[in-house]
Amino acid sequence: MGGTRTDGAARKSGDADQEDKVPDPEAEAEVVVRDAISAPDVDGRPRRATRRFPLFTRDTARPEGGGRAAPRDAPAPARQWPVLAVSAAVGLGLLLTALDQFRYGTLLIGLALLAGAVLRWLVPDVGMLAVRSRFTDIATYGVLGTVIVLLAMMVQPNPWLVIPFLKDTLHFTVSSS
Fold it and tell me: Hey, is 47 helix, strand or coil?
């Protein structure tokens, strides 16, 4: 046994580069990462970060302001009072619209969305009223609420708001000749 190895890992003289590929438990215990890393994989080893989007989303971040609107010990409806207030106003507006009060119903729906934008702006935790980022929510609620209010005020007959260039545009696009 003079020059031979007894651990079963005998190598030929030409396979010197194969010796570097033998797993070393001490080297595996210490992971050296030179590139940017992301979350660890299932074995706890860091993965290499990539610029590509993942095929499957594992989790999502809660929107800013998406916490509870009331303390944890409050009953469930009280914790979500902002979205319940906006939903109740929209529901009342839909009821008025169904009862043949179209102008007042749609006006109430638009005002409820504008109130949702104001709540999203002023209240730090609005619960489920927070869907996206604060800016996106305010812009979405504000634009939709403004458009619905303007349309409710321009509805025929006897509009409360007359915008002259819209009337000219309508007559230009829909002509009798």
Answer: strand
Q: Cα–chain-centroid distance for residue 36?
A: 26
DSSP H helices, 11-100, are: 25-29, 76-79, 81-98
Q: What is the pLDDT of residues 127-162, one digit of tens each?
A: 888 888 889 999 999 999 999 999 999 887 888 888
Residue position matching structure tokens 């634009």: 143
pTM over 0.90: no
Owner of token pair 């800013």: 64
How far is residue 22's CA from residue 7's CA, in Å, rounded to a whole number?
13
Using CB atoms within 10 A of its CB, is residue 58 exposed (0-12), middle (13-18) or buried (19+)?
exposed
**Residue 172 corresponds to which amino acid?**
F
Percent helix, strand and coil across the chain, each to the nearest 5: 50, 5, 45
Place of tokens 């709540």: 119
CA triple 63-67-72, angle to 5 deg = 165
> How do 46-48 and 37-40 pair as beta strands?
antiparallel
CB 24 within 8 A of CB 11: no
Through-space distance between the first and last CA atoms of the chain, rounded to whole angstroms: 110
